[in-house]
Every structure is written in structure tokens, then in C-alpha cells.
């Protein structure tokens, strides 16, 4: 394995590359307030982060990534447009895969710019690709915004759309909800009994929900049961969308075809097409660049548009050597009413050194 000093030296070189592009160096604290991350992701974040308690500051987390604190800093005090870079440790639990590091060095580049989102996407991708040159890596891209647009365009209730949007980053749960809302799976017996009014009366309250919250939940279940199922045609079209995995020109052709039957995705597909042109302008060969409609759904929870990653050709056991994407919605969530288009990416110098053979 590379030594810490080797990894830090590689990180310094990458950071200098981003600084040469005009990025300002930022150094968010290692300890971050837990409440922000819990508000963004719910209690799920506890399974992935190290949490500690402080008598004065409340719950704190060891920094699971840099993006959230950088967005907070920019929305609080940043000028526009802005570019930032950083390098330092991040900490993530790896209880399901102990072979992966739970502490590692990350280097990143973040762009906050309203001028031309497609050009900003291409800028981040091309710079990171340049930093990885001569390494045996394969890039893959995607766009979560296309699936989001398909969900928003469904002819169903707002409550169902909200549930599907919330679980876009949990593919199994998303598919299960889609099947249930389409009437393709049976109603669980306990729910069927509740809807039929056969639930036990006067049962003691268990857990933290009040009686009013329970009544509201039961009312929501009755409302959902009365709603028409999502059409089989729309479900099939979303499944076809999720299976798109082609080189970018071919993927765009398929997406344009799908947009005829799913007109709600047309603006998102147009953004993918604009990004392809911007990538070409940056010297990226999009004819060989893979586009996966499902890419990023299992690991990139705050991204809502362009996503990308670089995989090691010779080491499928390794996580992505670099990854990133667009997170416009995150700036709205943390901006207290303000927002700005934003995109960024991170690199892992330790993994880069492993691929170079410095092990």
C-alpha cells in the first residue's frame, strides 16, 4: 500500500492542478455538525458515518465527505461564480465490506456557476480525466435528472411521486414501490386488514408516533388504496429507461426515442445532449464514453443531474477511483432560500498510487 506521505504528496499535486484552474483552497473542519446531515439523509447516515457527542455542540460527525460543508460555506459567504479545491481525510463506516478503507484521503474540485451548466459539467469531468491520464481507468457517465423527470411526469398522486423520488437512490425499494403503485404486487395482509377496518381497536401506542400521526398515516393509506394504479405502459417505459447502457451517441438516440413516449424527460435529455457537445469541446471522445441511465443510484444520494465515475479496469475490487456530479438541489436545501447550479468531483490519490503500481 502507498505510504501516507506518498498519498499526501499525490494529493498536493492534484490540488495544485485545480488551483491552477482558479480554484480557491478551502479546509472544512474534520468534525461536522450531525444535524445537517441527519436532516438531509435521515437516520440512514448513522450507518455510514462516525458520530460523537459534544456537551456544548451536540452531535458531531467525522467528515464523511467535503461537498456538504463546502456548499454550506459557499451559500453562506461565497461570491459568484466560484471554484474550490480541497484535500484531506474523510471517514466512512465499512461494516458491510471490511476490506475497504474507513479513512482515506480525498481531493476535490467544486464549481458554482450559473453561466453554462453543461460547460461546467464538462469542465469538472475533463479536469479529473486529465488528472487520471495514463491510469488504467474507464469512465462512465449518467444523469439522475432523466429518471427524476420520468417520475415527475407520471400520471399518479403527488404522494406516490414523492415516495418514488425519495427512494430513487435505493434501487430495490424504488422498484418495489413502482410495482406496488402499478398494482403488480399484492397488498401485504396487515395493510389489507387495516384498510378493511379489521385492525385491533384500542391497542396501546408503541414507539414515538402520536395517535394523530397514526391516524394521518392510516388516512394516507386509504387515499393511496383509492388511487388508480400507475399504467403498465409507464412502468414498462421507466424500466426500459433504466436499462439504457450505451456509448453516449447511442444512448442519446435511445433517450430521444423514449422522450416521444415519455415527453416529461425531453428537457432532461436536451441537457444530456448539451453536455455531450460541451464534453466534445473539451476534447473528450464521447463516441467511446459510456452512458448508464442507472449510474450513481446506489452511492450518490445528493446528486440530481449529471453523474460520473472512473473505474479501475484491472481492479474491479476497488471502489471508484474518482467520481462526481451535479447537485443543484443541495444548494437549495442548504441555501436558506438561495440556490446556484453546482457540480463537482473527487479523486482518491491512494487508489491512484495503487494503480500506478506503488504498492
Summarize the structure in words.
The chain has three domains: 1-136 and 316-359, BirA Bifunctional Protein, domain 2 (2-Layer Sandwich), CATH 3.30.930.10; 137-157 and 231-312, no CATH class; 158-230, no CATH class. The protein has helices at 4-20, 34-41, 67-77, 117-131, 144-152, 158-166, 171-181, 189-195, 211-226, 232-242, 248-261, 266-281, 328-334, 349-355, and strands spanning 24-25, 31-33, 51-54, 58-62, 82-91, 103-112, 137-143, 245-247, 290-292, 306-312, 322-326, 342-347. It is built from 14 helices and twelve strands. The strands form two sheets. It has a nine-stranded mixed sheet with strand order 1-5-6-12-11-10-7-9-8, with helices on both faces. 44% of the residues lie in helices and 18% in strands. The N and C termini lie close together (4 Å). It is of the alpha+beta class. The mean pLDDT is 88. L-histidine binds at residues 65-67, 92, 106, 110, 297, 302-303. It holds the Pfam family tRNA-synt_His. Homodimer. This is Histidine--tRNA ligase.
Amino acid at each position: 500500500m502507498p505510504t501516507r506521505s506518498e498519498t499526501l504528496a499525490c494529493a498536493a499535486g492534484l490540488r495544485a492542478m485545480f488551483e491552477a484552474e482558479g480554484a480557491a483552497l478551502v479546509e472544512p473542519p474534520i468534525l461536522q455538525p450531525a444535524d445537517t446531515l441527519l436532516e438531509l439523509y435521515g437516520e440512514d447516515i448513522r450507518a455510514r458515518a462516525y458520530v460523537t457527542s459534544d456537551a456544548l455542540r451536540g452531535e458531531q460527525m467525522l467528515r464523511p465527505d467535503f461537498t456538504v460543508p463546502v456548499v454550506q460555506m459557499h451559500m453562506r459567504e461565497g461570491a459568484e461564480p466560484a471554484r474550490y479545491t480541497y484535500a484531506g481525510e474523510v471517514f466512512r463506516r465499512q461494516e458491510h465490506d471490511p476490506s475497504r478503507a474507513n479513512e482515506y484521503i480525498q481531493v476535490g474540485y467544486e464549481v458554482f456557476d450559473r453561466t453554462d451548466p453543461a460547460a461546467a459539467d464538462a469542465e469538472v469531468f475533463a479536469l479529473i480525466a486529465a488528472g487520471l491520464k495514463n491510469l488504467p481507468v474507464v469512465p462512465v457517465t449518467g444523469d439522475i435528472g432523466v429518471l427524476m423527470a420520468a417520475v415527475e411526469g407520471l400520471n399518479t398522486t403527488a404522494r406516490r411521486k414523492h415516495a418514488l423520488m425519495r427512494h430513487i437512490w435505493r434501487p430495490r425499494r424504488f422498484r418495489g414501490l413502482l410495482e406496488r403503485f402499478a398494482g403488480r404486487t399484492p397488498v401485504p395482509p396487515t395493510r389489507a386488514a387495516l384498510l378493511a377496518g379489521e385492525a385491533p381497536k384500542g391497542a396501546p401506542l408503541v414507539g414515538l408516533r402520536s395517535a394523530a400521526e397514526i391516524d394521518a398515516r392510516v388516512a394516507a393509506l386509504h387515499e393511496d388504496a383509492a388511487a388508480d394504479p400507475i399504467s403498465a405502459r409507464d412502468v414498462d417505459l421507466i424500466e426500459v429507461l433504466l436499462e439504457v447502457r450505451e456509448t453516449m451517441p447511442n444512448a442519446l438516440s435511445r433517450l430521444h426515442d423514449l422522450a416521444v413516449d415519455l415527453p416529461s424527460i425531453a428537457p432532461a435529455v436536451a441537457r444530456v445532449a448539451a453536455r455531450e457537445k460541451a464534453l466534445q469541446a473539451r476534447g473528450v471522445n464521447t463516441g467511446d464514453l459510456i452512458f448508464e441511465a442507472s449510474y450513481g443510484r446506489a452511492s450518490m444520494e445528493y446528486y440530481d443531474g449529471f453523474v460520473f465515475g472512473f473505474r479501475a479496469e484491472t481492479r474491479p475490487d476497488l471502489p471508484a477511483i474518482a467520481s462526481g456530479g451535479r447537485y443543484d438541489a443541495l444548494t437549495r436545501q442548504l441555501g436558506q432560500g438561495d440556490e446556484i447550479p453546482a457540480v463537482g468531483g473527487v479523486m482518491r490519490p491512494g487508489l491512484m498510487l495503487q494503480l500506478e503500481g506503488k504498492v
